[in-house]
Amino acid sequence: MGVFKAYDIRGIYNQDFNKETAYKVGYFLPRLLPCKYVVVGRDVRMSSDEIFENLCKGINDAGVDVWNIGLATTPMVYFATVYLKADASVQITASHNPKQYNGMKISRTNAIPVGGDTGLKELEKMVNELEVKPVCECSRGKVIDKDIHEAYLNYQKGFLPDLSNLNLTVDASNGMSNLYVKELFGEHAKYINDTLDGNFPGHEPNPLEVENCRQLMEAVKANGSDCGVIYDGDADRVMFIDERGRFIQPDYVTSILGYYFLAKEKGPVLVDIRTSRSTTDYLKKIGATDVHIWKVGHAFAKIKIREEHCIFGGELAGHYYFRDFHNCDSGILASLIVLQTVSALKKQGKTLGQFIDDVIAYANSGEVNFKLENKDGAIDALLEKYSKMNPDRILDFDGYRVEFPTWWFNVRKSNTEPYLRVVAEAKTQEELDQRFAEIKSIITQFS
Questions:
Q1: Are 6 and 415 in contact (CB under 8 A)?
Q2: What is the rounded CA–CA span in Å between residue 337 and residue 341?
Q3: Which residue in the list 48, 95, 255, 278 is annotated as catalytic?
Q4: pTM of the model
Q5: What is the number of helices (H) and of strands (E) in the chain?
Q6: Helix, strand or coil for residue 323?
Q7: What CA–CA distance (Å, rounded) separates 279 from 9?
Q8: Mind listing the pLDDT tens digit for each residue in 46-75?
Q9: pLDDT of 418 strictly over 90
Q10: Phi and psi of 399, rounded to 5°?
Q11: Is 255 a catalytic residue?
Q12: DSSP 397-424
């Protein structure tokens, strides 16, 4: 797999790509996205400074300025793209991947993402095939520092709830959320992994892996917290632990956002193709005029949420999108809104865990990964079997979601890793176990 993915540029630094790649991305980016300046931010990974230096050199050699916002969360770069009226921006990050990875997330005007089908393939072709011809020294761009920390902090404070009745524990994963969490939550939270460290000594910065949440689970119970909050490496994703120390499956969190938003305004909501019926049924019950199911990934979600005029959206991976945040995702913004609901529930004598228990109406497998070579063969075999069983409907984007009256499954190829991913759900645990065993037996024939 190359480093130009469906959503971004990403891989192991100095193995899958290097500083020359970063330079060429910088040089050709203004050709892809004509602009007077490019906003650039970066995470704290050990390779980010070198990538930044070479990316900027390439942009400057194309005759374009860099507006450097320094260390940044990825949502901070989205904010800066709009706030600074930029026609192009880059966040240097590998998000939740292990420390040896790095990459670049590119956006255009109004923080609209540049994905595989919206420019990245074209940029890859330029990088691989075109000749670099730097402009003369007199036309070279410059790197200009822009401090937007306070502007973005003040924007986030607009969503900050009264936390005085809550006891919180926050795991910043040694990542970019450390730029803001203490200024937002202050003394109302206890903190772990609360220093910026690109070696991620606490745990890998991927909270979707429950093992990386163990520290927080134990801390929530030890602190008697109402909620635990954990961000990924670049703070565009967030996950939650309830008061009992239980990991909350992220698509259930979309229900909490619905509780907040749909009480204020009825309208459409976006979810991804893996989302639980527990969540979609709940959203419809409390006022979602439509629940649009769409492809996985921020490059797809941000376009769809605009097209369908959705109030907000949520994904199983812990990305949450907001119309009022330029249709972009933000882990910190999502956590502020969830905590407004947790605070309101506590005043009613109800806990976060009790709320989630009331939402869950189906047994769910979670997303299970299968590493195998013949992924297409496995998908075709599953479709052949289950399409003959008179399903209610088949959604045929991003793999397949095959729905029956009492159960459904989604099978899809990962866009970023060599896995076939499966989610299944049924009305009872017994049926889920039976159906998942059938699916697994078919897939393992192709391993």
A1: yes
A2: 7
A3: 95
A4: 0.96
A5: 14, 23
A6: helix
A7: 31
A8: 999 999 999 999 999 999 999 999 999 999
A9: no
A10: 75, -145
A11: no
A12: SSSEEEE-SSEEEEEEE-SSSS-EEEEE
